[in-house]
Amino acid sequence: MASSFRILSVLAIALAICAKGTLGEIACEHLDQDTCAYAISSAGKRCVLEKRVKRTGEEAYTCRTSEIEADRLRNWIETDQCIKACGLDRKSLGISTDSLLESRFAQQLCSPQCYDSCPNVIDLYFNLAAAEGVFLPKLCEAQEGNARRGLMADIKSSGFVAPGPVKYTVAPAPVEPVKYTVTPAMSPYYN
């Protein structure tokens, strides 16, 4: 009796381990080039597609784990519907904020099909835009109207312009530092 209980216990543990592996522990290094870009590992790290040229001149693609963490997302392979709706490419070899300057891309990113349905993509571009000093919801709001020029200028200049030189004829009054705190912005999916 104890022997059959042990066998059942060992069998149950083995089955649980196998099921866990088949149910979707995502490791970026195990993804192919058709699922790598815009995927997130089970550890919450974003996957990146890399290209290398073999000695024969042939191009080879590999998927690697980046150091970039996704906010609250894990075990995620982006759907083909989101890739298409957001104007993305599965063979992207990296992402940059430059794509936000492209009007067509920004329109697709801000479209209801992408913005309202693809939290992984929006989280990624929300953080990219924030790194450039741009608030993605404002950029998308501007996409709806024609106020895009001002925001595009903010992106190009990172939103800050240094003041020009000032010529004083008398000594300027001392300037007191301003103290303020900034609360980090969160992706619209986590507010």
TrEMBL record:
The keyword Signal applies. Residues 1-24 form the signal peptide. Keywords: Signal. The keyword Glycosyltransferase does not apply. InterPro entries: PAR1. Pfam families: PAR1 (PF06521). PANTHER family: PAR1 PROTEIN (PTHR33649:SF2). This is PAR1 protein. The lineage of its organism: Eukaryota, Viridiplantae, Streptophyta, Embryophyta, Tracheophyta.
